[in-house]
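Structure ticket #2291
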Amino acid sequence: MLPKGGAFLLEQSNPADVFTPEDLTEEHRLIAQTVADFVEKEVVPRDAELEAQKEGLMRELLEKAGELGLLSADIPEEYGGSDLGKIASMLITENVSTGGAFALGHGDHTGIGSLPIVLFGNEDQKKRYLPGLASGKLIGAYALTEPGAGSDALAARTRAVLSPDGKSYLLNGEKIFITNAGFADIFTTYAKIDGQHFTAFIVERNTPGFTLGAEEKKMGIKGSSTRSLIFEDAPVPVENVLGEIGRGHVIAFNILNIGRLKLGAGCVGSARRAINLALQYALQRHQFNTPIASFGLIQHKFAQMAAKAYAAESAVYRLTGVIEEALRGKRAGREIAAAIEEYAIECSICKVLGSETLDYIVDEMVQIYGGYGYIQEYPAERFYRDARINRIFEGTNEINRLIIPATLVRKALKGQLPLIDAAQALAKEILNLRTALPEDDGKPLAAERDMLVRAKKLFLLIGGQAVEKYGDKLADQQEIIGILADLAIQIYAMESAVLRALKAWEADPETAAAKLDLARGYLYDNFPLLEKLTRESLAFIFEGDLLSTQLAVAKRLCKYQPIDLIRLRRQITGRMLEAEKYVV
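Resolution: structure written out below.
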């Protein structure tokens, strides 16, 4: 039975029920290798031309990818796709991520550029557009953001009015920061019919009254096309309304949810590549007649980079496995929307976790390269610039942090998640909380599993107190919401890492050592952060004796026995130095 979205905060998961990268089939691995080979042979040699936005090159490469079936994983076979499923789709996204700007063009086309029609198009729309999108003969783009409507997408001012003959909607307005705009053929665009009904439209490039702005000059991802779209009485046929009138938000938000998960997968792929490049450099670069990879502080960096990448990868594939099952057999738009929306919390978590993990890793990558990391001739500079946009794409990380607790509270109030009951139950047991170390059950990570149980109680402690004090005004306390989001993100990441390691151990104890070490490394690096967040929030909510009481409870929940992290990090890095790459 599939878990409910957000239920990871209340329940203990069975490792056997969690999908991990080790569960990939031989077919999955062949797909991943095909993508890697394509990027290495077709994209990397033309990287400089892509960065210079050579006319027609991005489209040429996308069409070549289409010939290999790398654009059609999410498109049903009856419309020219390969319908490989979400796991294969994430693998493609992850492995194409090493292709620089091409990865952005590919990801936008196969994700938010095609999925609105795949998931919400009617039969006629699917037949008209999906075969071309699957092959690369048509390129898709997604137009939601406006000058005055970024994170607040529903504040869109682009309007649509029915033409006098009733055959078209006339669109007026502007969209900005649209990826693939310079060469895309179709645009999923949003406008308010009569200024009120937020609706999605399929707009074709040759539509009269539709023009493009100039290419934006960007900090990173320079090889991608980013332009504004301008609509001046642009007629869009009524048959190109996507989904239902006034229900555009259902399409927009659910496409963004899948986009957030895909972004997390892309960040994982880039993070692994960055680690490998930095590792190769550290083995070659000598200082004081010694490879810098042998220095303790450099090894410390690699161990933390690897642990973070491992946790993010574990979280992304854990969620991908769930969504793969949730969407199985579903074809109707409303069914699909409901299945995706169920896991909006986890999608936001993977987006924030993946993008912030990548940012951490590329920052350390620059540091390992030293002065060369600041030089364009070396890869670290490019990785650093390109990574930064991921914390803005698909809803800023701040917006995603607001989404996580808000969605949890909404599900709780609707009776979809027993969050309030769990918080009340915790309040009753709070004076008798166990602080002794857990009994040994013969499985590894016993102490770490106990820490996770207590981490979830910390979330309930703060969440319950915050809801009780602020009620429906909690949305005004964004700092507390942000803390709750950070707790949820860390709990999901730590638990995903631990569950993956346990599943590997249950399959073969002798080959699970690296995963067990990486899980421990991530958990002991990040668990202390929970106490800081807890103390900060409680000091805001309470004062005086009440604060002292709550802090005493929090201290018991945050108690843990430290381990020798220095030795653990040396083990993690030692394996990578031996293999000369990131290993799990």
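Closing remark: The longest helix spans residues 248-284.
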